[in-house]
Amino acid sequence: MSLLLAMLLQVGPDPTGGGMQGDDLVRDRPPRPAAEEPAEPEMLNPTSAWLVSCLDQLASDPARAHTTAQIRRSETTGPDRVLANHCLGTAATELGLWDDARAAFISARAETPADEARTRARFALMAGNAALASGDAEGALDLLGQAADDARAAQSAPMQALAAIDRARVLVTLGRGDEALAALDTATTLAPDRSEGWLLKATLLRRLERLAEAQAAIEQAAGLAPTNPEIGLEAGVIAVLAGREDAARQSWQSVIDLAPESPVAATARDYLAQLSPLETAPESVPAPAPAPEPETQSQPEPR
Questions:
Q1: With contact defined as beta carbons under 8 Å apart, do 229 and 264 qualify?
Q2: Is the pTM here over 0.70, yes or no?
Q3: Which residues contact 82 (CB under 8 A, 6 or more apart)?
Q4: CA distance 194 to 179
Q5: Burial level of 108, CB count in 10 A (0-12/13-18/19+)?
Q6: Among candidates 93, 44, 45, which has minimal Cα distance to 65?
Q7: Phi, psi of 249, deg, nearest 5
Q8: What residues contact 289, with CB distance under 8 A and at least 6 apart?
Q9: Which residue has the higher pLDDT, 10 or 282?
Q10: How far apart are CA 127 and CA 146, in angstroms?
């Protein structure tokens, strides 16, 4: 593993995390698992220590982190400048400065050595997400193509899958559903153990009215991440469109049980309210008492 990649994995959030607003296939993605190559604990060198400090400022004062990173970028070269751009782009993302974020991540990729293809792929993914957030879907598609090329050069199937997922998000915004589905097929083939690809595939198949295939995909997602409320929400939508109201009700109730205070649970409650009320059995009415038998009068015996 390269020194630069090790630094990136030691600190900060997964830089390919994110998600764009809008269409239900482009909504915030579920949290991704931790990086698959965690660095061994060690004393931070000055470059890594600076990045830790800069990223630590993001939660409390992203504007200060943004300014700090700009200064650091102007005063350094090599890996120090790359990591300054990393923090700058991340701070710009927190501030919603999408053009700044895109430029910083593009610079970070360009200044990363060519033989560190996996790190270059990570920066291209971040730049592509920033471009999509700024409204430049075509620009995002180009950057995500670069990410896919870098991921292939690095022979990293997980990174190729992430590039394919993000490419699918962009293609959805461009109304190119068939191409988006092909990208998700690639993602689920390369990383079949990641629930995110299956969830997005189920959502797109449902939008394309291919409900049987959507059901198969959401079952794959649920098997991989049974406690993810996003999956339960989508499972309910697929079920109700297929005419299975009881299954939809159970899925949406599971979302509320899993994350009662979340926005996803609020959506599930809205969906439940739109379902027809459960039929209740009529109250039992006591059966009427049988009518008494008529008394028979004794007949006089014949003489």
A1: yes
A2: yes
A3: 4, 108, 111, 112
A4: 20
A5: buried
A6: 93
A7: -60, -45
A8: none
A9: 282
A10: 10
* 3-class SS of residue 17: coil
Contact yes or no for 274/248 (Cβ under 8 A): no
Over residues 55-70, the pLDDT tens digits come to: 888 889 999 999 999 9
Q: Write the pLDDT tens digit of every residue in 24-58.
A: 444 434 334 333 444 444 566 887 888 888 888 88
CA 245 vs. chain centroid, Å, equals 26
Burial class (CB in 10 A: 0-12, 13-18, 19+), 115: exposed
Model confidence at 282: pLDDT above 80: no
**Are residues 236 and 203 in contact, defined by beta-carbon separation less than 8 angstroms?**
no
**Cβ-proximal residues to 61 (8 Å cutoff; 6+ apart), any chain:** none
Q: In 10 A of CB 62, how many CB atoms?
A: 18
Domains, the chain, ordered by start: 1-16+43-192 (1.25.40.10), 214-276 (1.25.40)
How far is 258 from 232, CA to CA, in rounded Å? Answer: 9
Q: What angle do CA 249, 253, 254 make, to 5 degrees?
A: 120
Above 70 in pLDDT, residue 301?
no
Check if the beta carbon of residue 106 is closer than 8 Å to that of residue 125: no
pLDDT at position 17 over 50: no
Rounded CA-CA distance 40/166 in Å is: 29
Residue 288 binned pLDDT confidence (cut-offs 50, 70, 90): low
| Over residues 183-210, mean pLDDT | 96
User: Residue 208's CB: how many other CB atoms inside 10 A?
Assistant: 14
